[in-house]
Amino acid sequence: MKRVKCLEWCVVGLLLVTPAAAGAAPQPVATQPRADAAAKAASLEREARQIETMLIAPCCWREQVSVHQSEAAQQVKREIREMLGTGMVRQQVLDAFVERYGVRILAEPPDEGFGRVLYHAPWIVGVASAFGLVLFVRHITRRPARQASTGGTVGAVDTPRAGAPVEDTVGGKAAEESYNERLDEELRALD
User: Fold this and answer.
1) Are residues 88 and 129 in the same domain?
2) In Å, what is the CA distance from 118 to each residue of 101, 109, 111?
3) Of 108, 129, 153, which one is at a domain's C-terminal end?
4) The total number of structural domains that make up the chain
5) pLDDT tens digit string along 114-171?
6) Which residue from 48, 77, 50, 73 is spatially nearest to 60, judged by alpha carbons?
7) ∠ at Cα 75 (69, 78), nearest 5°?
8) Residue at 174 is within a domain
9) Cα separation of 139 and 136, whole Å?
């Protein structure tokens, strides 16, 4: 029994080693071209879907061809696949649609001419807004000018800020006494 098992294993080993030793690796004859064709078809479909996202539907100019559900969008999808099938590359397909419909068909405007402004406008607006915000904050946090010595209006009189020590204000104790006297007079006038 042992000899039979050993003999079976030897035959199996020879059958496996002989084709490899002869250099004849088994290859599926009919599946190789099919695999290449399937890979090429998948690659073309992937490229077609990417191009569909780059174009706007020419019927209403609102949505990308990839998501728009109209006969015009379906026609553009068919034309994209036909063009790719003839060997055109992405840029050639886009150029063909731009030639037919104009730059308006592109979902993303080109970075040239007026389109360049569209690319740089957000940065310009952002920097200008930040600069304006800095100026605004500086303006509202700036201390009001002191006009105690010029005898301006009541709103322009040097008044101590809440919680500020008297020594930090212009005029020191004399200004505080003047302010208190004027306050007392105005309160008496209201009575």
Assistant:
1) no
2) 20, 8, 8
3) 108
4) 2
5) 767 777 888 899 999 999 999 999 888 886 654 444 455 544 445 555 555 545 555 6
6) 73
7) 110
8) no
9) 5
